[in-house]
Amino acid sequence: MADARVLVVDDEKSMRDLLAITLAKEGYDVTVADGGAEAIEAVRRDPFDAVITDLRMARVDGLQVLRSTKEISPETAVIVVTAVGSTETAVEAMKLGAYDYLTKPFKLDEIALVVKNALERKRLRDENVYLREQLGHQYRLDNIVGKSAALAGVFDTVRKVADSPSTVIITGESGTGKELVARAIHFNGSRRNKPFVPVNCGAVPEDLLESELFGHVRGAFTGAVSNKVGLFTAAEGGTLFLDEITEIPTLLQVKLLRAIQEREIRRVGDTREIKIDVRLIAASNRDLEQAVQDGVLREDLFYRLNVIPIHLPPLRERREDIPILVAHFLDKLGKQLGKRVSGVAPEAMALLERYHWPGNIRELENVFERAIVLGGGDVVGPDALPDSLRRERPVRGLVVELPEDGMDLEATLDGIERRYLQKAMERTNNVQTKAAELLRMTFRQFRYKLQKHNMARRGTGTDD
Ligand SMILES: Nc1ncnc2c1ncn2[C@@H]1O[C@H](COP(=O)(O)OP(=O)(O)OP(=O)(O)O)[C@@H](O)[C@H]1O
Ligand SMILES: [Mg+2]
């Protein structure tokens, strides 16, 4: 922290000069005061970042300088200098809010270090005060935090659509906040007192999904021992959140489309239609136009859903949101975990801002939960962060070359994809569920890719 303003107070000229020269060499903007009265006057004129004062001075002593400084400018770090054998006064000084004390005789690099630490801590404090203020004034909606232009656009849309019955589709990578936004839409609209029902279409076994969504009547299929109310009915008057929409088998997508268009459903095994009043919000972490092209999302359903699209960009494309999210999670998790953490060390913040965040905001949140639980101190330092953040490197082992006369990007990427699929299958002895996991895909996405590359019939899956 160069050009920090430091005041050196001593009524003994040689000591005063020695300190002043040492600190000026460190790059600080140094002012000297001959005695306590002069020091207090200087502080009153213009606050300093740090004050170093001798304790034993004639007339106005160091403790008085400390008291007055804390009164006039509480943020100023005060360091007191005592003679050996006067620990009691040092203790009193600490109680009065001194940052630290030094015992004479001290080494010059010792004083330089103490001042440096004091200033560092002050800077951190100032920064966190600033962050908290930002948190108060920011453009916020419920628990959605951010100040990037992308997010401001999202807030805007959420407000506008909350009260309308229109279908909304939210896209974005895993952990970008799709469910959070869906909830914000529901809870800011007129349906807020009715149910919000989330369903992860990828997590329900394919053959059960229809009865899960629409319900069934007794005897509709083996195992249907009684009538079952579907999630559409459970969400009556409220919102149904269909997460991972592309995981719905295409046959069922036809029925879903019908339900949306006709505003009525038919339970499995039933002959009657049931009227519904449900707002639909769908979400996916895939590029939906691509999904249509790939044949996993029916085009007609896509157009029916795509009334109000909201896209949440990955965190690495809105890094300006990182500091404010950090402040938000420090506050939120600190309260949840019952630990007060006041800030993040600059080196740690630099790592956080540089990392590519494949798991997006969920990953950031997890990193802070871990740091708060495991970290000892008042400040999150680089050591409290997982290794992956410190090992950040560009994509490993991939040398990219663009030939003079260009190349077919699609074909090249296809080839790369194929090789990764092969690698994953080899590594897992052809167990597709494990291979899918290795590549961070759902089983169905993985199986789809295998089919695309004509690799489907090798190896064992689970349910086919
Ligand atoms: N802008 C934000 N401000 C504060 N917290 C956020 C924000 N975005 C996401 N989060 C938090 O990050 C976590 C992940 O968000 P969410 O579950 O909504 O992501 P998602 O996009 O639905 O992920 P997935 O595709 O994996 O289901 C949640 O704990 C959520 O509260
Ligand atoms: Mg989600």
Annotate the secondary structure layout.
Blueprint: E1 5-9, H1 13-25, E2 29-33, H2 36-45, E3 50-54, H3 62-72, E4 77-83, H4 87-95, E5 100-104, H5 108-137, H6 149-162, E6 168-172, H7 178-187, E7 196-200, H8 206-214, E8 215-216, E9 228-229, H9 231-234, E10 239-243, H10 250-262, E11 264-265, E12 274-275, E13 279-284, H11 288-293, H12 299-305, E14 308-312, H13 322-337, E15 343-344, H14 346-354, H15 360-374, E16 379-380, H16 387-390, H17 409-427, H18 432-438, H19 443-452
Parallel strand pairs: 1-2, 1-3, 3-4, 4-5, 6-13, 6-14, 7-10, 10-13, 15-16
Antiparallel strand pairs: 8-9, 11-12
Report on this model:
Helices cover about 45% and strands about 15% of the residues. With about 475 residues, the chain is an alpha/beta fold. It is elongated, with a radius of gyration of 31 Å. Mean pLDDT is about 85; it is low at about 135-140 and about 460-464. It binds adenosine-5'-triphosphate and magnesium ion (MG). Adenosine-5'-triphosphate (ATP) binds near residues 175, 177, 178 and 328.
Q: What is the distance, rounded to the nearest whole angstrom, between the alpha carbons of the first and last residues? A: 63 Å
**Structural shape:** elongated
Q: List the bound ligands.
A: adenosine-5'-triphosphate, magnesium ion
Tell me, rounded to a whole number, the average pLDDT. 87
Biggest sheet, strands in spatial order? Answer: 2-1-3-4-5
Strand content: 5-15%
Main beta sheet? 5 strands, parallel
How many beta-strand elements? 16
The helix content, as a percent range, equals 40-55%
What structural class do you assign from the helix and strand content?
Answer: alpha/beta
- Radius of gyration (CA) equals 31 Å
Number of helices: 19
Stretches where pLDDT falls below 50 for ≥5 residues?
134-140, 459-464
